[in-house]
Specification:
The protein is mainly beta. Helices cover 15% and strands 41% of the residues. Helix 1 (58-69) packs across helix 4 (141-156). Residues 1-38 have low confidence and may be disordered.
């Protein structure tokens, strides 16, 4: 269900032109220059593996997923997504027996967790028991495990160790809290300053709930344009709106169709984020731009140019040969008029011109508003033997014609008598 918005003609090749009010009080900037489909959040993939671990990997995998998805963490409120994969991830999260940790190379040793290259290693002794310094602070083991995941992942993201900023302050997550709290309070999450440094290094904003998605296809259909894709709002599984602008005229709809592929690619988003819209447009060339719209703003999903044809359409349904003639039947109509149009049927060098005015209720149902009187049935003289039958729909304006089909047919010889 779409709703037409106020029209405004845009001129000039500018990037950001004017704001058009949308349903729900949102504002959408109309972009004149084509933009690539929004890529959404930065996505880092990771594997979870064990190395001679004596405890189950499941608690580590579950806590890692929760930690990476938490808005307090390195995900920056949705601007970065950590996604677990079976193999080939950007990094591997290990639960390793303490004795095997040094094998990952410098700076790893058997006492603490570490990060080396693409390996983020959790020392199983620390995972099971915490550390003396942490335990002495009174903080629990669950918070320690969250801290060590964030700390070692922070190294993989490119951060070095930090120091306590002052007695009683929350320790930076990149502080070596396993060794000493240095007078700070134990803290499992990146501080605001640490998160801001990550945001700056990745050129993203923290907690900006701008939506993302994809303009999958724009195609011309009968008397209109078909637009499809998906759109997701950050931090919500609820469907969001999309705005479609065709030559500056806006329409709004909700992206709520089931898209299981989106749910698989973006865990937690759900599947109700697809859109498929068919919008009536006259024949000609049109620019189509689509935007994902949320309360905090909009994201351009892309622009495409498409040409809607005003040429006649139809079909040559039946061709039969009889002694001395060929019968042909089908339908033809012109999108520019509901009146019957002319059809030319050729059999070899013989031809006949007729009006496609016979009742075809099936055609009327398929193309509402144009009536049902668009069928044709005719007979054309033909010589015996193999013949080629072709039918053409003649444009009501005389601009062009449409081939409805060609079929071979064998015309039997006359029966002597």
């Amino acid at each position: 269900m779409t709703r037409r918005l106020s029209s405004r003609r845009l001129t000039g090749l500018v990037t950001l032109a004017l704001l058009v009010p949308l349903l729900g009080g949102y504002a959408v900037a109309v972009l004149r220059s084509p933009r690539a489909a929004a890529s959404g959040p930065i996505i880092y993939t990771y594997e979870v593996r064990g190395l001679q671990n004596r405890s189950s990997l499941t608690p580590l995998a579950q806590l890692a997923a929760q930690t990476y998805a938490d808005p307090r963490g390195w995900g920056l409120g949705g601007s970065i997504v950590f996604r677990r994969v079976a193999s080939g991830g950007n990094f591997t999260l290990w639960l390793s027996a303490a004795s095997r940790v040094p094998g990952f190379g410098s700076p790893c040793d058997s006492e603490y967790s570490c990060t080396s290259g693409r390996n983020v290693i959790i020392n199983e002794d620390r995972w099971l028991d915490g550390s003396a310094a942490w335990n002495a602070s009174g903080a629990n083991l669950g918070l320690y495990r969250t801290m060590v995941i964030n700390h070692e992942t922070g190294h993989w993201l490119g951060f070095a160790h930090e120091f306590c900023g002052g007695a009683g302050q929350a320790a930076p997550v990149m502080q070596q809290q396993s060794i000493s709290l240095q007078g700070c309070r134990p803290n499992s999450w990146p501080t605001a300053a640490e998160r801001q440094r990550l945001a700056s290094s990745r050129h993203v904003r923290i907690g900006t709930p701008l939506p993302y998605g994809s303009l999958d296809a724009v195609s011309a259909v009968f008397k209109g344009v078909r637009v499809s894709g998906w759109a997701v709002g950050r931090g919500t599984s609820a469907p969001i709106r999309v705005a479609i602008y065709i030559d500056g005229r806006g329409r709004s709809s909700t992206a709520s169709r089931s898209r299981p592929d989106v749910a698989r690619a973006h865990p937690g988003a759900g599947s109700a984020h697809g859109f498929v819209l068919t919008l009536a447009e006259p024949a000609g060339r049109h620019q189509v731009c689509v935007y994902a719209v949320a309360a905090a703003g909009h994201t351009g999903l892309g622009c495409r140019t498409v040409t809607v044809s005003g040429a006649p359409i139809g079909r040559l349904d039946i061709v039969r040969g009889a002694a001395g003639s060929v019968s042909a039947a089908g339908w033809a109509l012109d999108p520019d008029t509901s009146k019957p149009i002319r059809v030319h049927v050729y059999v070899g060098r013989n031809a006949i011109a007729i009006t496609a005015a016979a009742s075809r209720p099936d055609v009327g149902r398929r193309y509402p508003g144009l009536g049902a009187n668009h069928g044709f049935v005719t007979s054309v003289r033909a010589t015996s033997g193999r013949n080629q039958v072709c039918a053409y729909a003649i444009d009501s304006t005389g601009v062009g014609h449409t081939l409805l089909g060609c079929r071979p047919v064998t015309v039997p010889a006359p029966v002597p008598g």
